[in-house]
Every structure is written in C-alpha cells, then in structure tokens.
Amino acid sequence: MKWSQLQSASIKSIIGWASTQPWCAAMQECAQDAKWHSEGDVWTHTQMVMHELPQLESWSDLSSHDQTVLIFTALFHDVAKPLTTQVDPLTGNIISPKHAVKGEHLARTILRECGCDLTTREEIARMVRYHGRPVFLMHKSDPTREVVRHSWLVNNRLLYLFALADFRGRCAKKKTRSEEDLHFWKIASEEASCYERPYPFASDHARFLFFHQDKPNLHYVPHEDFSCRVTVMAGLPGSGKDRWLAIHRSELPVVSLDEIRGDLMIDPTDNQGKVIQRAREACREHLRAGTSFAYNATNTMHLTRGRWLDLFADYAAWIEIVYVEPPLDVLFRQNKSRETVVPEAIIRRLADRLEPPTWAEAHQLTLVDG
User: Coiled-coil regions in this chain (predicted)?
Assistant: First the structure.
C-alpha cells in the first residue's frame, strides 16, 4: 500500500494492511510483561491504542494531517519491541530497553518504503522516539526545560494526546501511574507557551544556545556577532547536495569530502583519517578568515555531524543545515550518474541508519524532499 492510500485509509484498513507485514508478525509473537500489559502481545496493545485515538475528546478538532501523525505513531510506537525485548536476569521482568530509539529508525524505513513525504515521515519518526516521555515529566529536575526542548522536536499537544491513548489502550494488573501524570505534560507545556507550537525563543541564536549549553537560560537574549555563515549539507550519496549548492549557494567556496578524496586518491571505503584532517584544515582556514562557506558531506549521523557543528560553533559561526533526501529510486538513478558511483548496498545501509537533522542542531534547518 502506498502512502497516498494509507494516509486516507481508515484505522481498520491500516490495521488490515499492517497485518500482512513481517514487522507486524514479529509484534504478534512478542510477549509483554503482564504487570503493565495483561492484554497480551505487542500487536494486541498496538491495535487497542489505535482504536483509542478516535475516542479522544479533541480528536475531531484535529486536522487530518495531525490525525494521520497520531495514527501512525500508534502503529509504530512499539514496532521495535521484538528487536529489544528480553527478560531481566535480576527481576525476571520482561523489558524492552531502547525500543523507542530503534523504533524511530524502523518507522522511518517503513514509511520511506511506502513513499511517505519527508516532513511527515520525520514527524512520525520523532513521535515514535519520544512517545514515552510525558509520563516521566514529574520526575525531571527541570520540567519546563524538558517540554521546551521537546517542542522543537515534536508537537507537545500531539505527544500528550498519544500518551493518553497509549495509557488507555492497555490492561494493567498493577497501577503505578495515572492520567494525572500525563496531564502534567499538558500543563507544563501550556505554562511555557509551547503546547501547540515550538517555544518562542527570543531569536534563532537563543534557541541554538539553549540546545548547546548545559544550563541554558530560557529568557537570555544573546548578543549576535557571527564571524561568518556556514552551510552544512547533509544527505545520502546521490541525493543532489552538489546541485542544491550550485543553485542556491553558488557564491560560496565549498569544502567537499568527495573532492578531497579525489585529490588524495582515497576510496570512500578506505580509511578516511587523512580526508577528515584535510577537511578540518580547510574549514579552519575559512573560519579564521571569517569567510562564509559550505561544508559538503553525507553528515547523515547525528554524532558525526555534531563534531563538525561544534567546530563551526567554536568559531562563532551562524550555522544552517540543508538536508536533501529524494525518493530512493530517484537517488539511485542520480547516484549512477555520479563520477564516483557508491554501491547501492552501501546506500541502503546508510539509509537504514540515518538520523536527519533537527532544529536542535543549527540556527536554520531546510529539508529538501525531492
């Protein structure tokens, strides 16, 4: 079933489609701890949560887009439990550590294969990743910071509504939490003016510093004196990063890992130490001179991308990230026309692990879908 069909399908039809998929079969066979999920396996719980959504008091007030995001968050929120479920050797309890993080990646892969647009896909994937956060807010040392942070990653209202459906869509022998725990997320978000929209920082730089400082002050209005502007390209090989730069940032000098590899005659599968060293030196030259430039590499992993962003921030640069991801069939076609063709198997492996950038990482974020 293609995304154009799925997003207009009924919950019953979506459940019927999902039931034919191998990841759903795995959910059907995945047991849960009866103390928290006496209703049974993961798929039983998933269906219960999906059916709870239309029962929410505010369901009819939501846009069709928001309803779609919630339905597919419910469908995928526990999709990685079969990959992570184990028996705790100390307690004998069934646990599923990091299932939300792995679920984000799995949901992203499934939605990509269905043809879901980039923006909606990332909304759903991040909802899957953070779906369990509301219930624990009361235990956070700084609840306001928590809801402000998440408001730039997900929609706090949708996260709250999903948490309600998730709480109601189960049978628990042991009640250690209540819906009041979830209401605290709504109240804290409303008080911080970030329940239905991202928190309104004083400036893009204030937001940037909030996400990059240990103890940020929400009301701090930082002085802005940037040394230069750095455009950080991100995307799989063959996605069209060079073309985007040529059209939109043609005036900028470019530090390109592909070009450096060519100059040094180093294959992408070889040790990249010398390539990275040369690139860092080139970036530092521009930064020290206060020259705006573009840094062009795959940058698809948060940790790897973060090292470069930290370098640019150390030199007081204004940072924008441009993430380019066309449909895979388009990407593979473009890859074949590259001077250095990357094997399709490598691209698929990178696609399964990719972590698209968020507004928490830069002053400006642009997602290019196509």
Answer: none
